[in-house]
């Protein structure tokens, strides 16, 4: 089934060429536009399933502000960033803003299409080697905690906090289940509850939010502050009184 999408890029010609190629592959392109002050508003008004957002400078401050606005007003829209070979910090910034994927400008049309489909399904649409670097950046301990992190932490149960930490470490459902000694279906339910409580649509967005707000640092501190359960003290059995001998 085709994806309902919009293409937004610095170069209108590139946006229109990409839109035409995707139309030929059976997708419904609502608009192809160049970024401007109203680009995010246009995406919000059209409400596509996926927005392909091109940028030439992923490290430039404020470049992902449109992503923040789109996700704030239309959280169901999956944003996939199209950009140059990025630094981990650039990808981390994109996901922290709410993007669902990052695709290099030199990717083939099949790669762009796969990223669109994964993003629409709520999955992270980024090459594994780029994802690894982004996670390292997102989990940088230099992230500044704020009051939002404390508020989010209060929303989660201790078990959900453990699930979130494991998600942020890149564990899939199978590894989470094995590490916590629970069934995969139970682990999947815990993950979905964490995503719902945090108000995000994917595991990567949850990890980005947790790192950006300092939630992970706070979670680690809370776990360290919680006293470990002490084993019950072993008392030697009381000696039985000697049986009285009959006269």
UniProtKB/TrEMBL annotation:
Cross-referenced CDD domains: LuxR_C_like
Gene3D superfamilies (UniProt xref): 3.40.50.2300
Response regulatory domain boundaries: 4-120
Pfam families: GerE
Biased amino acid composition, Pro residues: 228-247
Domain HTH luxR-type residue range list: 149-214
Source domain of life: Bacteria
PANTHER family: DNA-BINDING TRANSCRIPTIONAL ACTIVATOR DEVR_DOSR
Name of the protein described by the UniProt record: Helix-turn-helix transcriptional regulator
Source organism of this protein record: Streptomyces antimycoticus
Keyword Transcription regulation included in the entry's annotation: yes
SMART domains on file: HTH_LUXR
Region (Disordered): 220-247
Keywords of the record: DNA-binding, Transcription, Transcription regulation
A molecular-function term among this protein's GO annotations: DNA binding
GO biological process, one term: regulation of DNA-templated transcription
InterPro entries according to UniProt: CheY-like_superfamily, Sig_transdc_resp-reg_C-effctor, Sig_transdc_resp-reg_receiver, Tscrpt_reg_LuxR_C
């Amino acid at each position: 089934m085709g994806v309902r999408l919009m293409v937004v890029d610095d170069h209108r010609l590139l946006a229109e060429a990409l839109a035409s190629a995707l139309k030929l592959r059976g997708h419904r392109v609502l608009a192809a536009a160049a970024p401007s002050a109203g680009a995010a508003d246009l995406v919000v008004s059209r409400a596509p399933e996926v927005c392909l957002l091109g940028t030439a400078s992923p490290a430039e401050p404020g470049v992902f502000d449109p992503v923040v606005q789109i996700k704030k007003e239309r959280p169901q829209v999956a944003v996939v960033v199209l950009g140059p070979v990025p630094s981990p910090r650039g990808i981390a910034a994109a996901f922290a803003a709410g993007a669902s994927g990052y695709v290099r400008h030199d990717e083939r049309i099949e790669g762009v299409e796969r990223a669109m489909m994964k993003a629409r399904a709520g999955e992270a649409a980024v090459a594994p080697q780029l994802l690894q670097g982004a996670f390292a950046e997102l989990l940088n301990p230099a992230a500044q905690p704020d009051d939002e992190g404390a508020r989010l932490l209060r929303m989660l149960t201790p078990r959900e906090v453990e699930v979130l930490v494991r998600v942020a470490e890149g564990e899939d459902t199978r590894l989470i289940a094995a590490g916590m000694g629970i069934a995969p279906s139970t682990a999947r339910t815990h993950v979905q509850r964490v995503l719902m409580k945090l108000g995000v649509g994917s595991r990567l967005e949850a990890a980005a939010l947790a790192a950006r707000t300092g939630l992970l640092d706070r979670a680690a501190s809370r776990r360290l502050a919680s006293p470990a359960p002490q084993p019950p003290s072993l008392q030697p059995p009381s000696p039985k009184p000697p049986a009285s001998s009959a006269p």
